[in-house]
Structures are given as C-alpha cells and as structure tokens.
Amino acid sequence: MSRRAPLLVIAVCALAAPAFAGPKASGEVTVKGDRPAERRGKKTPLGHVLMRHLDMAVAIDAQSRGLAAQGGAISSRYATTRSVTPGSPFVGGTQRNAVAGNLRDYNETELEAGMPLWLPGQRDAMEATVTTGVAEIDERLAQRRLEVAGLLRDAWWNAQRAAREAGVARSRVATAREIGADMTRRVELGDAAQADALLAKNELLAAETELAQAEGAEKVARVTYEALTGGAPPDGTLESAKPAGDIEDHPALRTPIAALRRAEAHARLVEATPIDNPEVGVFGRKEHNRQYSTDPSQQITDQLTNATTVGVRFRIPLPTPGRNEPRQAEALAEMTRAQADYEKAVRMVLAEIQAARVNLAAAKRAAGIADQRLAVANEQFALTRKSFALGEIGALDFYRVRQLQLDAQRSQAAAAVAVGAAVSRLNQAQGYAP
Prior knowledge:
Radius of gyration: 41 Å
Shape: rod-shaped
Helix content: 55-70%
Largest sheet: 4 strands, antiparallel
Distance between the termini: 67 Å
Structural class: alpha+beta
Order of helices and strands: HHHHHEEHHHEEHH
Strand order of the largest sheet: 1-2-3-4
Number of helices: 10
C-alpha cells in the first residue's frame, strides 16, 4: 500500500459513514404514500382514501350511470300498476252513407269508447315484477361498485409499485454518484486503475437510465389512477384489512339472488296472464234515412225512419297452448338460469376468498424474508465497502456485492407492495366496497 493509503482510508471511511449509520441504509426506500404522517406534513389526507376515491370513480363510471338510468326506466312501470287499466283506453267511431238501393239519404254515425281490463291477480303480479326489477338494479349497482373498487385497487397498487421502484432507482443513483466520486479520487491519487473509474461511471449511467424509466412508469401509473377517480392522486393510505362478514351480503351473491327473485315474479306474472287482456267498451249509434218503394205494383211510399241506439261491446281472447306454453317455458328457463348463476357465484366467491387468504399469508411470509434479506445485504455491502476502501478487494467484487444489495432492495420493495395488494385482494374477494 502506498504512503497515501492511510489518508485515503480515512477519507473513504468518512464518505462511507452514512451507509453504516443505522436504519437509514441505502437499501431503505420509502414511497410518498407509505411515509409516516409527520414526515409527509399536510400533503396526505387523514384516514383511508378508498371510500372517497370510490365515490368519485363511481360518479363518473359509465356503466354505473347506465344502470342507474335503467333503474329509473324500470321504476317508471309503477305508473302502469297504479292505473285502472293495463293499457291505453281507446276511442273509435264509424260513419256510413248509402250510395245505392232503396234507402234514400241513409247515413249512420257511431262512436265508441273502451279500455282493456286487468285479469285477476295480474296487477299485483306486475307490481311484483317491477319491485324485484328495481331491487335487481340496486344489487347490480352494488356489484358494479365492487368492480370499480377492484379497478381502483389494481391501479392504486400499480402506482405504489411504480413509486417503490422509482425510490429504489433514486437510491441507486445517489449511491452510484457517491461511489463514483470516491473512485475518481482514488484514481487521481493513484490508488485505483482507470478501469475502476470507468466501471463506476458505467454503474452511474445504468442507474440514471433505470431512474428515468422508473420515473416515467410512475407518472403513467399516477395518470391512470387519476383517470379512474376523476383527478384524485394515489396518495395516502388506501385501506386496511377488513374482518370477514356474512357471505350472503357479498354483492356478487346478492345480484343473482335478486335476479332469481325477479325471474320468480315474472313466472307468477305469466301464470296470472293466460290470455291477452280483455277489452270492454260502450258505443252509441245514430241512424237517419228516408225509405221508399220503387215496385210498380205497390203504392209509392215515402217513410222517414230515424233511430238512436246504445250498447256494450267486449272482446275476450281465449287461452291456447300455442300462446302460453312458450311463455311458461321461457319463464322456467329464466328461473333455472338464475339459480345456476347463484350456485356458480357461491362457488367462485368462496374460492376467491380462500385464494386471497392464502395469497395474503404467502405475501406476509415473503415480505418478512425480504426484510431479512435486505438487512443481510446492507450489512454485507457495508463490510464490502470497508474492505474495498482498505484495498482488500477489487472493484468488480465490490460491484458484485452492490448488485446483490440492489436485488434485495427491489425484492423488499416488491414484497412490501405485494402485502398491501394482497390485503386489497382479500377485501375485494370478501365484497368490501365502502
């Protein structure tokens, strides 16, 4: 070792001291959404943001707005059930005039007014279909809210993952610059070869490239999330793990149950409507004519005959298998389909909850191992940095250990995000959409 070595060791150790100073090792990366509140100041809202962001996302969701409009259209059918007639009343009339024959100046005028009639039990059955239809739309809205919550959760954790990766990249750039400056001084003092300086420069360029890509991905992820929420950024704390609730309250199960109730109500309406609605009407007729005979063997007569009559008309369709059997079969098929959808939904929900619980447990185990690995990598890097400063190892070995630390940093950041994403996945599987 040259005479300058003691001074060089002191200088390198002084530069390396921050890397050995407790928990703020270069492998520790924080993200805007995960820092303690006292370090973030006023930028992060208090509490969880899922409910507020979900309200914003649902308000601009096209499918939710379409379902709400559909619900209004179905509820408007209550007007029919409150009407005295299932259809529209009608008014009709005829006018007839004789153009030949022995009815001189004959004309007839008739006016009629009528309406269709409710069949026994039909009004109540129709009202039940409207009520169950509105209830089904409400459940579909709840299910769509859960789907939007899933989209938000995925976008949120994509943004957090990108932010973590950007944090690791910033840490890599800072450490690469620090090591590069130290390497340059060593080359200038003659204690390192120019190849070591080039190696340090290459590492710095690689770190800056990774940072540029990571920051770009972070911006894209944030823009994607803001597009879902209408402008709210993915900052703060999304949610915490929620305890399991009653499986029957899951929106994915309430929707097929509501569809089954609507199908049953429709089947009752079909049963209560074996024929088309009968019609009844009243009419009035006024006739005027001058009647005479043109037979030469008879005396010529000229008699005025006028008449005014009133009456009632009705029309009652008759039930036929050709009309009723297809309707009954379709109603039964709809009920069978709704029952099958419910049974399938139960199986899928139970499987998703079980898978989410297994995934959360695995993510927590992996996060613990990743933390341990990062602690070992930080300690290993600190020792290697001392050895490199003392000239005991070369630059290639030093950067090999540095790469191990970078891998541990990335693994720890990914594992931390995976735990949060697993919590959100469990809440999603359990049907939690505040």
